[in-house]
Amino acid sequence: MATDISFMIGGEAGQGLQSIGYILAKSLAKGGLYVFANQDNESRIRGGHNFFQVRASAKAVQAVSERLHVIIALDERTMTERRRDLVEGGVILFDVDKIETTESTETLLGVPFERLAKEKTGKLIMANSVAVGATLGLIKHDFNILKTVLNETFQAKGAEVAEKNIQAARAGYDYIADRSRIKFRYAVETTGEPTDRILISGNEVIASSALVSGCKFMSGYPMSPSTPIQQFFASKMRGHNVVFEQAEDEIAAINMALGASFTGVRAMVATSGGGFSLMVEGLSLAGMTETPVVIIICQRPGPATGFPTRTEQAELEFAIHAGHGEFPRVVFAPGTPEQAFYLTSKAFNLAEKYQIPAIVLSDQYFSDSYFTTERFDISLIAIERGEFFTESDAKKLGEYKRHLITESGISPRLLPGQSWGLSVTDSDEHTEDGHITELAEVRTKNVRKRLKKLELIRREIGPPYVYGSVDAETILIGWGSTYGPLKEATDLLNGQGSRVKMLHLSEIWPFPSEVLAEELKKVRSLVSVESNSTGQMAHLIRAETGIEVDSKVLRFDGRPISPSYILREFQTIG
Amino acid sequence: MVTLRDYEGGETAWCPGCGNLLILTAVKKALVKLGLEPYQVLMVSGIGQAAKLPHYMKCNLFNGLHGRTLPVATGARITNPKLTVIAVGGDGDGYGEGGNHLIHAIRRNLDITYLVHDNQVYGLTKGQASPTSEEGFVTKTTPEGVFVRRLNPIALAISLGISFVARGYAGDIEHLADIIAQGITNRGFSLIDILQPCVTFNRVNTYQWYRGRVYKLDSSYNPKDPMAAFQKSLEWEDRIPIGVIYTEERPTYEDHYPRITETPLVEQHHDIKSFEEILEEFKV
Questions:
Q1: What is this structure's pTM?
Q2: pLDDT of residue A554 exceeding 90
Q3: Chain A interface test: which of B11, B57, B60 (most A C-beta within 10 Å)
Q4: Smaller CB count within 10 Å for chain B: N or C?
C-alpha cells in the first residue's frame, strides 16, 4: 500500500511542538514524500494542550487526517486523550521517565527522551531531538536526511548546537532500532530522489508572493493568525529595501498603506477579522480616493475575540460588503499554495490597474499549515501597474486631473513629486482635479465612473475549479481553505460509488455568476461545504444567481474541516 | 523663483474673519520663503474646517479621513523622503479622533510637519466641545459646561521627547510663517499648535481674548531645556507664550533606515529575479 501516514506531536504550549513537527515534516519531505502539517494551538504561551500534526503521503495531500499512526506524547494528557485517534497497530512514543504507566502493550513505546538527551549531550533541551530521532527510527527513515535537516535548522545557532542535536537524534533513533521486538507495521516508502519541491506555510506563501510581486511597504498590527505574514515581510527589510512598519493600531496600518500607495509603491496590510473591522473606514477611503491597496485577512472564529488561534471562514460576506458607500473591490480566497502565490500577485495587479482595494482571504487553517508543493514559477509573475500620466502626456493634454472621467472609468495616476502636475485626492466627493465639491451632477458622474471599473474587473475573474465525476449527481461547493479536504472527500465518495463533483471558488468577487450557474445547473443536488454556521457561500450563490443550494455541510467549532468530517456529514444529509 | 502667486488656489468656504484665512496666508508665505515649488510639497489633511486648507492653495494633496492624517503622512514620507510632507487638521481631528496617531507619530520621528489649527471648538459640525475646550465652555453637547480637563498638546509633546514643538497665533501671520518655516526645516517630527479664533462658535477665545494674553518668546528663552519647556507649556490663563517651545535633537526614522533616503522606495526598480532567493529557503 502506498504511504499515507499521520504523526501527531502533542503537549503543552512552550514544549517546542512546532520545532519537532517542522523537523519531522521537512525530513519526510526530503525523502520525497508529500507532506501536509497543521497546528492546533491554544491561545497561551505555556501549558494547555496543543498539537502539531504531520501527514506524509506518496500522493499530494492537502488535508488533515483524523486517524493517527504515531503519537509523540510530550505530556500525559496527549497520551490518554489522543489514544482513541490511533489506528490499529499505531504507536505512542512517550518519555518513560516522565509519564508513568503500568500498562505494557505494543502500543505504548516508552523512550527516555530526557535521560538520553542528558547522557549524550548534557542538555535536557535536546530531548525534542531525541523524540524526532526515535520517530524516524520507528519508521526506518534514512538518518542522513534527518541529519541534514538538523544542520539546516540549527546552523544559525552554530555548529556545536547543530552537532548536539544530531547526537541527541541519533540516540533516539538507535534506541528504537536496538529494540528488535518493535514491529511497526506502517511502512514509509521514500523515493530517495531529490525533488524541486518546497515546504512552506500558507502565510509564508502570501508574504513571499507579495515581495516577489513588488510590494515595497507593509504596515500591520500583530494579530493571530496574520502575524507571521508581518514578521516574514519585516525579516526581508534589510536585504531587499522594503519597509514594514508596526502601526499603533489597524486604523493606522491601513492609512499608512494608503499613504504609501498614493505616493507610488505597492502597499499591503495583513490582519484578522477584528483588525479588519478597524480597517473598514480605510477600506472605504481607498474606494473613494481610488487608491490601490492589498488587504490580507486571515480569518479566525468570531464574533469579537472569538477563538484567537483557531479557524473559521465567516468573513466572506463581511469582506465583500464591508465599507460605507458603494465602490468596486476584488475578493480572492486561495485554497492551495499555488493559488495563494499567484492570486496574491494578481491582487496587486488588479488593485493597481483598477485603483481599488483587493482582499485576499485566508484562515488560520490555511495560514498556519505547511504544504509541500512544486516550486512556484516566478516567470509567470507579471507586474501590471496600470496607467500613469507622463511628462509627454502633460505636454499633450495640459493640466493633470487625478480623477479624470474616462471611457474606462480609470484615471491615469501621477505620483506626487513630479514637476509636470499635482496629484490631488479627497475623501469628500470631488471634482476631476480632486477638490472637494457639492455638485449633484459631479457626484452622479463619479459614482458611475467608480462603478464602471467593475465591468472590466469582472472580465479578469477566473472560473471556479471543477473536479470529479463527469456524470455527477451531487456537487460539493467550497471556497478558500477547504480545497484539499473537498478534493480528498470527492475522491473517497467516488471510490465508494457515489457520483460526486467538487466546485471550488478562489476568485470570488466580482462574483463569477454566469459560469457558476452553468456548472450548478448540470447537477441534481448542491451541497455547500463551509467553515461557518450560516453557509455564507450558499447565501451568496442564491443572491447572485438565484440558485438555491440544497444542503450544507458546516463546521464552526474552530477546528478544520477534514475529509472524514465531510464524509460523515454527507451521509447524514443523504 | 517661486512666488505667492504660484500657490494661489481656489475660493475658500470659510466664514469671513475666520482664523483659517490667516493661517492659509502664513503657510503659503513659509513655503515661498523656503523656495519650495508646489509639486515638491505633499499635504495630508483630515476632516474639519482646518483640513480644507490645502484645497485653497496649490500642492499635492491627500485629504483623507477625520483623525487619520498622520498615518497617511507616515506612509507617504517613508515611501518618498524627497517630498516635503505637511499634515494639517484641527484640534478635534488631531487631539480627539487622531490622538493615538499623534502620540506614535511623535515617537516615530519622521520628518513631517503637523499643523493643528486649535480653535478649541468643533466648527464643521457646528459648535461642540473639543479636547482643548476651556473648562466651563457651554455647547450643545455640554449644556452644563465642559468639566473634563483641557488637553495640553504642548506638554504632551514635550513628555514624548518631540523633536520640535511650537505654538503659533493666527493673528500674527509673519511670526506664524516663520515658525512654520522653522518646523519644516527641522529634521524630525514638528508639531505646531496654532491658536485660531473661531468667529462663529467660540465666543470665549476671541481675537480680543488672545490680544491681551499672547506674547512672543524672545532669545532669552532656551527651548532645549525640557523642564523649562514643560513649565512654559503650562502657561495659559493670563499669559500665553507663542514661538518655539521645545526642540530636541534626536535621530529621525529616516536616520535609522538611511537606505530609504538613498534610494526611496518609490524610485526602486523592482527586479523580480532578485527576489527568487526568498523561495530558496523553503526548498525541501
A1: 0.97
A2: yes
A3: B60
A4: N
